[in-house]
Design goal:
There is one protein chain. With 222 residues, the protein is mainly beta. 0% of the residues lie in helices and 56% in strands. A four-stranded mixed beta sheet has the order 15-13-19-17, with no helix packed on it. It is flat and about 75 Å long. 21% of the residues are buried.
Length: 222
């Protein structure tokens, strides 16, 4: 057993030389600032501990990668949830942060290693990060999202309603009726992404455009 990165692999039973049929358990533990990622060589996967039944000679590599911390603070009165909620993360891990204001407070954006009003916020961990969720007192600011359609189809909103607190992220999904298909957005939203998202920083009016479906029918000879 060898290692790539900084960590240790222990064998149970120890030794490295075994009678045929012996089951050996391999446990990987990263050094400070490192964590186990996976096995390679004659053993694959991420199970830790992992086991090998000795039916031949084996050469196994325990792989370790640097780990990063994601520290989230609340400024004002509120809290932030992390999903997944871990003490450390591997490079490239994506974490969703959700700011939840206390009663009488509103979310006023992110600061530190992330900025903006997106809530939830997706963060790609590529270093040790410190992010603050800012909460302010005062009246709740609300904006309307007015959605209409051109052609024959429906647009659903998630969360539903059409009236949202400032900073809320709304997902719009367009579905054409029979014989129609979604083509694009217009109004205060553009493009062809479906679903599409809007962060409520003002009143918005969006149009979901549909056109007749010109896809030729599938003809079966069966």
């Amino acid at each position: 057993v060898t290692t790539a990165g900084s960590g240790q692999v222990t064998l149970n039973p120890p030794g490295g030389l075994y009678d045929e049929g012996t089951t050996v358990q391999l446990s990987a533990v990263g050094d400070a600032g490192w964590q186990f990622t996976d096995w390679s060589g004659d053993l694959t996967g991420t199970a830790n501990p992992a086991t090998i039944v000795m039916t031949q000679d084996y050469a196994v590599v325990g792989n370790f990668d640097t780990e990063y911390t994601l520290t989230v603070n609340a400024i004002g009165s509120g809290n932030v949830t992390k999903n997944p909620d871990q003490a450390s993360y591997l490079p490239g891990d994506v974490v969703e942060l959700t700011a939840v204001p206390s009663t009488g407070w509103t979310f006023d954006g992110w600061s530190g290693d992330a900025v903006g009003l997106d809530n939830p916020l997706s963060v790609t961990v590529d270093a040790d990060l410190i992010i603050a969720a800012n909460f302010v007192t005062g009246p709740v600011v609300e904006y309307t999202l007015d959605v209409t359609t051109a052609g024959s189809g429906q647009v659903t909103l998630n969360p539903p309603g059409g009236l949202y607190n400032e900073g809320t992220t709304v997902e719009l999904t367009a579905v054409g009726d029979a014989g129609w298909q979604f083509s694009n957005w217009s109004g205060d939203l553009s493009g062809t992404a479906n679903p599409a998202t809007i962060v409520m920083t003002k009143d918005y009016a969006a149009v979901g455009n549909f056109e007749t479906d010109t896809t030729p029918p599938v003809i079966s000879n069966v």
